Amino acid sequence: MKIELSKNEWFLIVFFGVLILFTPYLITRNLGLVSFVGTGEIGDTIGGITAPFLGFFGSVLVYLALKAQIDANEQVRKQFEKQEEEGLINNRIEFLKTKVSILREEINSFYFSYMDDTQKGNVQKFNYQGSQAIHKLLVNSKNSFYGNKIRTPYELEPKLLELKSLLIYFKQTVSEVLNDTVINQNVKDEYVNILAFLFDSKLKGYFNVMEGYKSEHNEACSENCGNFHGIPSDLFEVVKDIESLLNN
Length: 248
Fold this sequence. Notes:
mainly alpha
């Protein structure tokens, strides 16, 4: 066990060590200062004189042993704290990694299909997946006739609600990465770069193209013509929020 001593501790050990070695010799010299007549054998005399010093020196050794144990315990405590902190960081990294992976998978697996009956007697079903499905959903929702009953666009086309949930999850993930206080900046930058790539390559361009078809209201028009005039505006608002977070 390694024991680190301060200067004062070294001084005390050396001082009392020298004192124990030379005190018996000095005080047993016939200098007229102390008389040892009737004190018994010289061994008993020296033993009686040095016993307090040896006891004190033993106490010093006990102190040093306790000090070393305390230092060792402190090192163990710091090691546990370091391991706990590293475990927390690793768990956080894995958590955010999972969220980014889920987001990427949800975008790539987004599915949209519709029936095209524009040609009489020839009904075709078209299936799209990934960013193409998102784009086709936006295109098909830009100016559709929904009948005379006032309903929200999300009731009329449930895939729009799924797309909205995906965009909100994207925004929450970006915000969570940016505001994280556990992982280091390099890891945060890596995740932000991945999210920026997903946003730019899978979402941003399609919404920019369809900006002109953004609805000014998210229900059928007030005149009850039954026509939903454009893509729900709140989708564009979430996209703008994501873009703002990534740029900042």
